[in-house]
Design goal:
Elements (H helix, E strand, L loop, with lengths): L1 E5 L6 E6 L4 E4 L4 E4 L3 E7 L4 H10 L4 E7 L4 E5 L7 E6 L4 E4 L4 E4 L4 E6 L2 H6 L5 E6 L2 E6 L4 E6 L4 E5 L3 E5 L3 E6 L4 H6 L3 E6 L2 E6 L3 H8 L6 H7 L1
Antiparallel strand pairs: 1-2, 2-7, 3-6, 3-10, 4-7, 5-6, 8-13, 9-12, 9-16, 10-13, 11-12, 14-19, 15-18, 16-19, 17-18
């Protein structure tokens, strides 16, 4: 298996080259193009009662597609559903990486996938994401962002604060908590509100743009029935 990022930048692609009978897992609808030697089938990541209960509680899907090079060596091109970067990470054995919901793009078959539940307080303050995606090595992992990806390494006990809309992922060894972005309660309600405080050791991945921030910019431009009535 060989993986590389092609067309680097905001609209990059990931190219995965598989030898005969090798497999690769990917997010549904991530496939852009592939050689005809590939077969694709859908399945659910994480079997058993525990995984089923998590999916029921959160309403989240762990559906993936598995591509297999059944007829010989070939390639597949993957892309996320939003304009942004793709990161390729080689997870070591038992190394864990926690991704915010929707960041997962693809992974080697040995990489374990699980849904990690946040507590209700962290969910409410951290932007409403109840489910995180926990990946465990060994194997290659692809994840994507909105905008570019900044990788920061925290030393033992080192703390770093990231806006809740920009935190993409972090190592399983990193501790985190959700806090107000300002000591003023009024400021918290009027501005961005809350941030993640992370404590090392481990890796932290930050996306340069925030989906919620973009939504706030676009909302005034949406044409609705009420808007049209106000113009009359």
């Amino acid at each position: 298996m060989k993986i590389e990022i092609v067309l680097p930048g905001t609209y990059c692609l990931a190219k995965v080259i598989l030898e005969k009978d090798e497999q690769f897992n990917m997010q549904p609808d991530a496939m852009v193009a592939m050689d005809s030697v590939m077969d694709v089938e859908g399945k659910i990541f994480g079997d058993g009662i525990g995984a089923m209960i998590k999916r029921t509680i959160t309403g989240s899907s762990a559906r993936i597609q598995t591509v297999t090079a059944k007829k010989g060596r070939g390639e597949i091109l993957l892309a996320p559903d939003q304009a942004g970067d793709i990161c390729l990470k080689a997870l070591k054995r038992n190394e864990e990486l926690i991704l915010n919901h929707g960041a997962y793009l693809g992974s080697a078959p040995d990489v374990e996938f699980d849904l990690k539940l946040q507590g209700p307080i962290k969910t409410l303050l951290g932007g409403g994401t109840f489910t995180l995606q926990k990946m465990k090595g060994p194997g290659f992992l692809l994840f994507s962002s909105f905008g570019s990806i900044l990788h920061k390494v925290l030393g033992p006990g080192e703390k770093y604060v990231v806006d809740n809309d920009h935190l993409l992922g972090w190592s399983g060894t990193v501790k985190y908590s959700v806090k107000k972005s300002s000591s003023s309660m009024l400021s918290s309600w009027l501005s961005e509100g809350f941030v993640y405080e992370l404590e090392g050791p481990g890796d932290v991945y930050i996306q340069s743009r925030g989906p919620a921030s973009l939504a706030n910019v676009l909302v005034p431009y949406f044409v609705t029935k009420n808007n049209e009535e106000l113009k009359k």
